[in-house]
Amino acid sequence: MAPSEPITFDVFFDYQCPFVYRAAGLLDAVRRSGRRDVEVRWRYFSLTQVNSKDDGWTVWSAPASEDVRGRVAFAAAEAARRQDRFDDLHMPLLRARHRDRLDIDDPAVVQEVAVQAGLDLQRLRSDMADPDILEGLERDHRHAVAELGVFGTPTFVFADGASAYVRLADGVDDEAAVEVFDRLLSVAAAEPRILEVKRPRKPSPD
């Protein structure tokens, strides 16, 4: 694959998902390598919503006073988009949750991550308090479920309509990133007849 050939796709994600963190690390390493021209559009998808047993309840319309897993991080990400700084906050939020084991459902933690990423804190707070801040989450999530059949994260959706739910077993080091990415594309995007590959787990010895 030529380095100059652009590769554009969507990835539906939830900050709480460790597999999103691993996929984001892989894509970041591929981008930094300069060997592939990768353009990722990160799209919101709430695992809390998927797991809800209440058909009338939604993450985006639940009262602000209700603690809703994942909602604070989604609001912060959308607020960062309003500053045209989504990419600056995206990986730091994932690292805060999965590397540093911080509680990104705590607004104070998320705001500290945003400050360290160089965002305008006053504007971030104001935008996160906007009642419409989760409209993007609602739009992306409903589209993912109704139009694409997305059920989990991360789900890659390619320009030709091919899609794949991808779980990396471990983080990928920089040297192997491009090779792993190319193999992922060869199955997920280039070979749509393969619907699922799942490795069995050997039982633990007694």
Give a nutshell description of this structure.
The protein is an alpha+beta fold and 206 residues long. The chain has helices at 18-33, 47-51, 71-82, 86-98, 107-116, 121-128, 135-148, 174-188, and strands at residues 6-13, 37-44, 155-158, 163-165. It has eight helices and four strands; from the N terminus they run βαβααααααββα.
Describe the structure in your own words.
This protein has 206 residues and is an alpha+beta fold. The protein folds into two domains: 1-59 and 145-206, Glutaredoxin, CATH 3.40.30; 61-133, no CATH class. The protein contains eight helices and four strands, in the order βαβααααααββα. It has a four-stranded mixed beta sheet. The longest helix is centred in the first third of the chain and has 16 residues, at 18-33. The chain starts with 5 loop residues before the first strand and ends in an 18-residue tail after the last helix. The relative contact order is 0.18.
CATH fold call of the largest domain:
Glutaredoxin
H/E topology pattern: EHEHHHHHHEEH
Mean pLDDT rating: 92
Count of helices? 8
Tell me the Rg in angstroms: 18 Å
Can you summarize the main beta sheet?
4 strands, mixed
Oligomer state of the chains in this structure: single chain
The shape, in one word, is globular
Structural category: alpha+beta
CATH architectural category of the largest domain:
3-Layer(aba) Sandwich
